[in-house]
Specification:
With 151 residues, this protein is mainly alpha-helical. 66% of the residues lie in helices and 7% in strands. The relative contact order is 0.12. Strands 1-2 form a two-stranded antiparallel sheet. The chain contains 4 helices and 4 strands.
């Protein structure tokens, strides 16, 4: 009988969580956060400024916003449509940015974390072949229920 504690499935989430916390302080994860912030913060500020400009002009520059551009289409309508256009443009730009810069870093970090999880969760036992061609396990706990050694 062995006194070694074997990892169970219940232990795996705690180990993975500990490795994930360690990964968060790694330089790779720091670069990942920096990469996403380089896009998110400036784009958020730009969109909020654009949106607030639209709202403020609609509230305080009614004569300007009521200026007809073509037929019954005025500047307020054009700015309103451009709000939707800018939203879709930002979403498209983000998907391109993420695919080029963010996703490769995230995939690399996930692969490292999964590799660490796999190496800790499933240690591979060493095996040797007996003279009869049968594979023998070299673990210390190879006894059957009757106490006889297994081949």
């Amino acid at each position: 009988m062995s006194t070694d504690v074997q990892p169970t499935d219940a232990d795996a989430p705690d180990e993975r969580a500990a490795r994930a916390l360690a990964m968060q302080s790694s330089p790779e994860f720091t670069e990942l956060r920096r990469t996403i912030r380089r896009f998110i913060f400036p784009m958020t500020v730009a969109f909020l400024v654009w949106y607030l400009l639209y709202v403020l002009l609609s509230a305080y520059a009614r004569d300007f916003m009521a200026t007809k551009v073509v037929g019954n289409i005025n500047i307020a309508f054009v700015f309103g449509v451009l709000q939707f256009v800018s939203t879709f443009l930002i979403a498209w730009l983000y998907s391109r940015y993420a695919a080029q810069k963010f996703d490769p870093l995230a995939t690399q970090i996930k692969a490292e974390l999964d590799a660490e999880t796999a190496s800790v969760a499933s240690p591979t036992p060493t095996a040797s072949t007996s003279s009869e061609g049968k594979v023998k396990s070299e673990s210390k706990d190879d006894t059957t229920a009757s106490g006889e050694a297994a081949e």
